Amino acid sequence: MEIPEDERSDIDDRGRDDTGEDPRSDVAPELLFANPLARPCPRRDRSFVAVLGHLCTIAVGSLRQRYGAGVCTRILWNDNPIAKTVSRCMDWSVSDEPELWFVPRGIERGGAGDSEAHTWRSLYSSVVTSMWGMGTVDGLNEKGLGAHALYLDPEDVSFPEPDGRPSVPNALWVQYLLDNYATVADAVADIDSIRITSPTFRGIELGIHIALEDATGDSAIIEPLDGTLVVHHGPEYTVMANSPTLDKQLENLARYRPFGGELPPPGDITSSDRFVRSSYFLHYLPEPENLEEAVAGVFQLIANVSVPYGAPYSTGDVYPTWWRSGADLTNRVYYFGSTRSPNIFWIVLDDLADGSEVRRIDPRQLTLVGDQTENLQPGVLPY
Questions:
Q1: CA dihedral in degrees (181, 184, 187, 192; nearest 10)?
Q2: What number of other Cβ atoms are within 10 A of residue 70's Cβ?
Q3: CA–CA separation, 83 vs 335, rounded Å?
């Protein structure tokens, strides 16, 4: 379903104005991912709608040579006795046009665009969020495995060279993991069986790293560095942000209390500060009394490191949080909330797991709230 006209701003998050035209259509693709808000907005224009209008239509500011346009955070709460829960946010210069899908078992897939492309049939059903219709960026499968792709600066990323192994493009990496593995340990044990490739999107390189977690509380961070996949595996890896790489994030974390240093938690919106702040507040999160608090806890934490519309980085670039997702890994429930809405809704995977058809819902509908499992409609997954 589309958002009703009376609930849209003049420029919606698909970038179209009220004439139905895309104001960005005559802009070079790479400019769409430059800073759309580097130009300060006059105070009188700093309304929610005005900021979104600038976000989607103004292609000005410092153009980066690489795809420096995505910042996100992932937080795993795996040491409480009620449920293993996780949350992440999606921060980007423009809307990633998310769609939420139920993907059944038995779907045939192939890593197109490569002579060594891997083909597989999905073993497990999943609920996932897609990005620009090109791949899965976030999701949860029927076994309680969660997977998330977050931005990592392409200058830090180096994918393996062709070596005869079957290949999977990075846009399908999350879906591949959800389709094929029940636990983090299974995925990590099989990590070298495929080669991840990095095709360009609109001529621009996408750098990503992956966070995995499962219903036991196990966790892994996977980063493509120096031509290999570097894996940090263990329940202690509860936070992931963006660049720098995880080893450097952990080194920086040790400068802060209570992680070995004396510095108080920082308050900026940079990747390093978000990593420290997430770790700090997760450390002090009190034990939940019920399932609702176990889910609310991770949403409270991810809200703390979300970026408001219009808030600039030191470079002047603006990458606001467009949406936040969460998952109850223990009970296999996937949560989603758009930052253009005060509501959270969820999908109960157990109620869909045996389904045989792809189903979808537009998570940008402003009226979605509560259990929406029965409101998913038949759809055609574009990848």
A1: 170
A2: 23
A3: 14
Selection from 344, 280, 269, 342 nearest residue 305 by Cα: 269
Q: State if pTM tops 0.90.
A: no
Q: Please write the tens of the pLDDT for every residue from 243-277.
A: 999 999 999 999 999 999 999 999 999 999 999 99
Give CA–CA dist 107/250, Å, rounded. Answer: 38
Our separate counts of H helices and E strands in the chain read 6, 20
Catalytic site includes residue 72? yes
CB within 8 A of 65, min separation 6: which ones?
none
29-86 per-position pLDDT tens digit = 333 333 333 333 333 343 333 333 333 333 323 333 333 446 899 999 999 999 999 9
Q: What is the CATH number of the domain that holds 315?
A: 3.60.60.10
Which listed residue (41, 56, 72, 89) is catalytic? 72
Q: How far apart are CA 77 and CA 87, in angstroms?
A: 9
Nearest to 97 by CA among 334, 347, 363, 370: 363
Identity of the residue numbered 261: G
The whole domain housing 78 covers 70-244+285-378
- Number of domains making up the chain: 2
Spatial CA neighbour of 331 closest among 358, 279, 296, 294: 294
